[in-house]
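To the structural biology subgroup,

Please find below the input and predicted structure for Integral membrane bound transporter domain-containing protein, which we are adding to the shared reference set this quarter. The sequence is reproduced verbatim from the submission form. If anyone notices a discrepancy with their own records, reply to this email rather than editing the shared folder directly, so we keep one authoritative version.
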Amino acid sequence: MPSNPDSSGRRPGVAARLRARAKGSGRNSYRRLQTYLIVGVQAGLAAALSWVVAAQVLGNPEPTFAPAAAVGTIAAALGNRTRRTVELIVGVVLGIAVGDLLILLIGTGAWQTGAVVFLAITAAAVVRGTGALMTQAGGTAVLIATLTPTVADLEIPRTVNALVGGAIGLLVVLVLVPINPLRTVRRVASPTLDLFAREMTDSAEALALGDVKRAERVLERMRVAERELNRLGEVVTAADEVVRYSPVRWHRRRTLGAYRRGVEHMDRAFRNSRGLVRRIGTTLRDNEPVPPDLPAAVEHFGEAVRLLHREFLAGKEPEQARQRALRAVREAGRACREEIGFSGTIVVSQLRTACNDLLRATGVGRNEARSMVRAAAEGQR
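Predicted structure (tokenized):
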């Protein structure tokens, strides 16, 4: 008999899911605010300083592009700002060169503007420019083509403004208000690793209970969670740039280097784990035998991720995470020696690969990690 709807016309389960979704969305928004609030502070300060330098120090009567360039340097990407700044300036110069040359040859007008933009972006593509460089080249070409008849000597001030804005943007993010690299990475890594561990635990329970639908829900959540991993990679890139170029953060180079390598391997572990969960679903749909050691192995892997998270936060050598990952491999090896189906053997293979990635994330070298996994699979460790 169907459940009675509540006063809003929705079933209680639907209302609970909506509340949970709203709560989760609020948490995600708060975490993003914590991560990116510093970007707003940096952009505001850089815009104000670049305006002052362009207008008051250099006497530029049209300083608008200086703060625009500063904000573009900071907001275009949380990481790779040095490269973005170079692209911005090169794009401006390229747009000016192409625009000036064509205006001298074909004049100004609607079709001439289209031709100028087309050739400016084509030139940017020829020099292997990214989207940022193409955007700046095309935007500058538009301004040159449309404003040259009414504004004299636009080219030099715009180039100077690009240089001023880009330089001040870098000054702000690397010297005046640099992010705290470790705090920023930990703030993003913490919920990401926690989510990873929870999904592994949930997939182990789905395997133990034979719950296909639950395994499918885990897989869907892991697909959505890929955005969190991408954000973590973006933040680590920004933090790495800071410790390489900011004098006040140079002392964090070694520690951040370990985080950067760890995040790279954890990203691989997550993607391999997604394949693992997909095969868990296939194992259950095909009614293959599931030895008790197999869900136990997946659970131990989830606990290894959880331990790695805790040991990273505590600044400890992640020895417990390594031992738990090897325990997962041993359990999977025992499962493989029992009655197991085709998809079950692939689950074991994916688990070993993910455990290898996790060992690499803890700082173990490539060959050593392979040897450790192989020995654990054979029951030697």
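Summary notes: Confidence is low (pLDDT under 50) at residues 1-12. The domain at 181-377 is CATH 1.20.58.220 (Methane Monooxygenase Hydroxylase; Chain G, domain 1).

Regards,
Lab coordination
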